[in-house]
Amino acid sequence: MFETLKAQPADKILALMQMYKDDPRETKVDLGVGVYKDATGLTPVMRAVKAAEHKIWEAQDSKVYTGLAGDPAFADAMIDLVLDGAVPRATVAAAATPGGTGAVRQAFELIQMAKPDARVFVSDPTWPNHLSMLKYLNIEIVPYRYFDNETRGVDFDGMLADLKTAHAGDVILLHGCCHNPTGANLNATEWDAVIDVLQSTGATPMIDIAYQGFGDGLQEDAAATRKIVSSVPECLIAASCSKNFGIYRERTGLLMAVASDATAHDLNQQTLAYLNRQNFSFPPDHGARVVSTILNDATLKADWMAELEEVRNAMLDLRQQLADELQRLSGSDRFGFLAQHRGMFSRLGTTPEKVEQLRTEHGIYMVGDSRMNIAGLNTKSVPILAQAIIDVGI
Ligand code: LMR
């Protein structure tokens, strides 16, 4: 039967990771996959994570299964971190998932179970795996305008006009903060306008929040999510701990389904557990336990927050350095948007040909749509990148 299989399209981000590995050049620069690297190029285990793992190792006397929705302490801690009491806890159904990707996937499946003909509105562009999973599940995709290639900011009028065509039973997928792949984000007034559209159309918001703490701060990055969740009757939220706890390979995420009443909450909770059982039974526990250990220990939490803040500020510094260097080399302000963008990524806004030229001629690896992982830079690679951008004529 295997001969009937068809080759599937390679994931662009993962294919790039492999090409980078295979490149023998010592000067190569990896701005592909969204992983934070420190000034020495290492993706370190965060201090609080190490300490929590130590604590767990000493105290844990069993590896028996958790519940289908994972350890309730993890759900409680994450609901607190993301929502901070924006809605009553009793309205939030939640299940641990293998990473933020797992949460997104389970959310799509829940949408399909609830409403097989639901359309999902996605920003143009969005994280490629959103599209890939939606296609895989045969869910109709409706792109909405998002990135303005001229200003490298958000085409907000276009976005709003497109979102207004949604109706009850549709889902609008939003990036809670640090938009991936563009780095261009909405301001508070624009979020309010999106909430108005959610209310007038009756469409259900689904928020993918994978970078809380990487943009303007832990609280600031969750502000839009909290406001949305408290303004609409129902909402799905997929949260990831991969980046802000640096536990990428532990696969730690949480899917939240917020309902307006207790009956809907119970049904949501039961459905989330059912979906986990169908797809993988019990979710991974180690990363989740690390996260709840940190969030429930005042000292560990303070240290985690301090280190996350160091990471966030380092990324902001790199953004500024790159924008300054490009201003110096180009004699123009046209790269100023790099300092305005937030999160791990910025879309440079150039052609796939120029991206290819950066890779072949300069050993600089970024995704074909010109998404750069700012957290992959360091003070040594910033001038190399800036010079290469100018050399290829961007
Ligand atoms: C990314 O966008 O680079 C990350 O979210 C990693 C991934 O799984 O694609």
From TrEMBL:
A GO molecular-function annotation: L-aspartate:2-oxoglutarate aminotransferase activity
GO biological process, one term: L-phenylalanine biosynthetic process from chorismate via phenylpyruvate
UniProtKB keywords: Aminotransferase, Coiled coil, Pyridoxal phosphate, Transferase
Pfam families for the chain: Aminotran_1_2
Keyword Plastid (UniProt): no
EC number per UniProt: 2.6.1.57
Any one GO CC term of the record: cytosol
The protein's required cofactors: pyridoxal 5'-phosphate
Coiled coil (UniProt feature): 301-328
Enzyme class name: transferase
Residue span(s) of domain Aminotransferase class I/classII large: 27-389
Protein family: Belongs to the class-I pyridoxal-phosphate-dependent aminotransferase family.
PANTHER family named among the record's database cross-references: ASPARTATE AMINOTRANSFERASE (PTHR11879), ASPARTATE AMINOTRANSFERASE, MITOCHONDRIAL (PTHR11879:SF22)
Complex formation: Homodimer.
Protein name per its UniProtKB record: Aromatic-amino-acid transaminase
